[in-house]
Inverse folding.
């Protein structure tokens, strides 16, 4: 008889949004297509943090070490996000998970190519096709510079 092969664990997946239906439904659709049951995590940055989105840091009250945080561990294998307020949280998740969470952003994050591991931008967002190339070149150049003392 054939050898018993242990089955691969099912990847964990978060949908990370601020709860807006238009953003959340896109993420849920991708999760469904992947055949995965997502855990919905909603971000809710307060002022002044919400004013700084998508470029600013997350609201410290929602940090991964805070009770009730949308970024509380255990971290997912995959995180799919959409919406301006979710961009900084996706970056924070990547950092908190030590790069182990594969991050996906749906729509233009408006922060460049480093916003996620995979960025899907619909044609109607009219993304400048050279924007990501410029951002990548700037990142590559900045990473070559020595760290300040």
């Amino acid at each position: 008889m054939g050898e018993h092969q242990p089955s691969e664990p099912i990847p964990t997946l978060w949908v990370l949004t601020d709860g807006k239906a238009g953003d959340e439904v896109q993420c849920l659709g991708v999760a469904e297509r992947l055949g995965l049951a997502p855990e919905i995590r909603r971000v809710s940055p307060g002022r002044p943090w919400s004013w700084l989105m998508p470029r600013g840091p997350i609201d410290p009250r929602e940090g991964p070490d805070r009770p009730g945080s949308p970024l509380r561990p255990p971290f997912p294998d995959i995180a799919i996000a959409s919406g301006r307020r979710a961009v900084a949280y996706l970056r924070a998740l990547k950092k908190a998970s030590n790069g182990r969470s594969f991050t996906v952003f749906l729509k233009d994050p408006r922060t460049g190519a480093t916003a996620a591991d995979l960025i899907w931008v619909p044609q109607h967002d009219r993304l400048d096709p050279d924007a990501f190339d410029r951002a990548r070149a700037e990142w590559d150049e900045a990473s070559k510079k020595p760290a300040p003392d």
User: Anything to note?
Assistant: Residues 21-34 form the longest helix (14 residues).
